[in-house]
């Protein structure tokens, strides 16, 4: 619980905020592994087109991503994975699932997505800049893979406050300079009134925080995205992983440093401008949320 707290003042909202990532710390399976993998499988079976999209041209980078995971996961996390290279199988020790690798040759990303709690997006360079060429997105934070699939980074982030213009140019430079074997990572946060991992509804369709009735502290969940970015060695495409950590805000009060975290979250909330607040889906509940956080940090 509360593995990451980017709202504590250590990071600035709506900034690129990339840091070097130790390659050995790329993927982080944890105690939620079995539950989240079961939820991924449920979503794939319920409506695969909603959570998986891929251009045919992305097959090379899909295979690269899977190969990287097959090489990395059993080495870094042997308690979670066993890779039988002779039988060409990988076992998820926590769930008992066994996958024959050769069965996924026409869509390697579908298997890659079933190995880790993270979502995966593959970006390929084009005349319009890097665009989303393949994605396995089971746990989105207020965006739709179907709607964003095939779009450029600029188009995907056109509604993010401050992104068009200077930030977009900076992101393009970062993408262009990223070297194979030198991954980076960043985090962001948002607030929701439900613990569901699958949150595809756009903020314009459904606010993240309901404005119906008085808001209660036990309704609030802090949702943190841990994003990693690396360049694939053969195709040169970029691979994003997006891992969701979500915690009940009320539980901040049980932590030794919970008051400081609640204070940091309240400060960041109060410092958001009108556009940033709207983007995070909290325009109508800013003051109510701040008052609830004050109950913890006061």
Explain the overall architecture.
With 298 residues, this protein is α+β, with helices and mostly antiparallel strands. It has one domain (6-297). Helix content is 33%, strand content 20%. The chain has ten helices and ten strands. The protein has helices at residues 33-46, 48-51, 59-76, 108-113, 145-148, 153-156, 163-177, 258-271, 274-279, 286-297; strands at residues 19-20, 52-54, 81-84, 89-92, 98-100, 119-124, 131-136, 184-192, 221-231, 238-248. It starts with 18 loop residues before the first strand and ends with a helix.
How many alpha or pi helices? 10
Order of helices and strands: EHHEHEEEHEEHHHEEEHHH
Q: Provide the gyration radius in Å.
A: 19 Å
**How helical, in percent, are the residues?**
25-40%
SS content category = alpha+beta
Q: Span from first to last CA?
A: 22 Å
Give me the side-by-side strand order of the main sheet: 1-8-9-10-6-7-2
Quote the average pLDDT: 93
Q: Which oligomerization state do the chains in this entry correspond to?
A: single chain
Strand content: 15-25%
Give the biggest beta sheet: 7 strands, antiparallel
Domain tally = 1
| Unreliable stretches | none
List the main descriptive attributes of the protein structure presented here.
about 300 residues, alpha+beta, single chain, seven-stranded antiparallel sheet, three-stranded antiparallel sheet, globular
What is the topological layout?
Blueprint: E1 19-20, H1 33-46, H2 48-51, E2 52-54, H3 59-76, E3 81-84, E4 89-92, E5 98-100, H4 108-113, E6 119-124, E7 131-136, H5 145-148, H6 153-156, H7 163-177, E8 184-192, E9 221-231, E10 238-248, H8 258-271, H9 274-279, H10 286-297
Antiparallel strand pairs: 1-8, 2-7, 3-4, 4-5, 6-7, 6-10, 8-9, 9-10
């Amino acid at each position: 619980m509360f593995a990451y707290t980017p709202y504590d003042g250590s990071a600035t909202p709506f900034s690129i905020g990339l840091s070097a990532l130790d390659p050995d710390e790329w993927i982080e399976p944890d105690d939620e592994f079995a539950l989240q993998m079961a939820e991924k499988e449920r979503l794939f079976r319920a409506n695969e087109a909603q959570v998986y999209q891929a251009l045919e041209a992305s097959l090379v980078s899909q295979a690269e991503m899977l190969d990287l995971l097959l090489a990395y996961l059993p080495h870094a996390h042997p308690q979670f994975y066993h890779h039988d290279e002779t039988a060409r199988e990988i076992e998820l020790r926590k769930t008992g699932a066994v996958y024959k690798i050769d069965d996924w040759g026409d869509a390697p990303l579908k298997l890659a997505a079933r190995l880790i709690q993270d979502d995966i997006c593959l970006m390929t360079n084009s005349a319009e800049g890097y665009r989303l060429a393949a994605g396995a997105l089971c746990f989105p934070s207020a965006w739709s893979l179907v709607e964003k699939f095939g779009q450029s980074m600029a188009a995907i982030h056109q509604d993010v406050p401050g992104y068009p213009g200077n930030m977009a140019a900076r992101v393009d430079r970062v993408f262009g300079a990223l070297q194979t074997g030198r991954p980076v990572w960043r985090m962001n946060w948002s607030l929701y009134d439900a613990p569901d991992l699958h949150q595809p509804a756009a903020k314009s369709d459904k606010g993240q925080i309901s404005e119906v009735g008085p808001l209660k502290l036990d309704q609030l969940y802090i949702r943190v995205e841990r994003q990693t970015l690396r360049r694939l060695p053969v195709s040169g495409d970029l691979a994003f992983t997006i891992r969701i950590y979500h915690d009940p805000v009320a539980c901040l009060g049980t932590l030794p440093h919970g008051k400081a975290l609640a204070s940091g979250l309240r400060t960041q909330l109060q410092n958001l401008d009108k556009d940033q607040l709207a983007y995070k889906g909290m325009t109508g509940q800013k003051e109510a949320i701040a008052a609830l956080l004050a109950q913890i940090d006061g």
